[in-house]
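Researcher: Let's do a round of design. I'm pasting the structure tokens now; please hold your answer until I've finished.
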């Protein structure tokens, strides 16, 4: 798989930033390039979100064990994220060259145990791409979010670069707050506070994260309706 120069540089910067070597750097790079070529930016962002969630949930499940409190709920959420991530990635590679598509189907999307193990490693790689985004760094993805046919018929006038940047920053704040809120709730399920002060602080943090995500979502919605 021949990657674009900017994508190769991104993969190198990502590995250097977090001090790790990706299991499938070429495949991650291909997904980025394919996303840009097919204008599927939002699909890729959704995929790395579910990759991060599934990876983190799997870590918690391994820590508490099958008999641990909340394991069944975590297992169901893990399975849901796995299915969503798989569907999104299949959509991204659907229009790729046949040889590449068969490579993904054989090595990541098959139902056998070896393929699933490979798929989890790919999700772990993509979770680091999500970390990069959460840290406020731009992704090398140029594809625009998908639009429905109704949205296409009622497009808003073009916005200037400053407005677009503001919307992206608000969306990053919202996504980061939502992700932190989800992890906080998982922590409640797995390892709840013991003393009253701990519960009080935890509730304050959750309420604050909920408030930030709510306000950010409202601001993003408002900015999208503004010229």
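Researcher: That's everything. Go ahead.
Model: Designed sequence:
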């Amino acid at each position: 798989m021949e990657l674009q120069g900017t994508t190769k540089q991104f993969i190198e910067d990502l590995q250097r930033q977090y001090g790790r070597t990706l299991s499938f750097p070429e495949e991650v790079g291909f997904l980025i390039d394919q996303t840009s070529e097919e204008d599927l930016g939002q699909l890729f962002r959704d995929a790395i979100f579910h990759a991060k969630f599934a990876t983190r949930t799997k870590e918690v499940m391994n820590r508490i064990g099958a008999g641990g409190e909340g394991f069944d709920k975590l297992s169901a959420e893990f399975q849901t994220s796995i299915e969503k991530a798989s569907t999104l990635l299949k959509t991204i590679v659907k229009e790729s060259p046949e040889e590449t598509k068969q490579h993904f189907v054989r090595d990541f999307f098959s139902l056998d145990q070896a393929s699933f193990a490979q798929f989890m490693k790919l999700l772990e790689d993509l979770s680091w791409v999500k970390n990069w985004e959460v840290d406020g760094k731009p992704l090398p993805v140029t594809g625009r979010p998908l639009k429905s046919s109704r949205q296409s018929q009622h497009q808003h006038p073009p916005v200037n670069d400053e407005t677009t940047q503001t919307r992206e920053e608000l969306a990053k704040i919202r996504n980061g707050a939502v992700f932190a809120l989800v992890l906080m709730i998982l922590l409640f399920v797995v390892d709840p506070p013991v003393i009253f002060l701990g519960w009080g602080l935890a509730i304050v943090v959750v309420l604050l994260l909920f408030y930030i995500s709510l306000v950010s979502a409202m601001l993003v919605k408002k900015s999208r309706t503004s010229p």
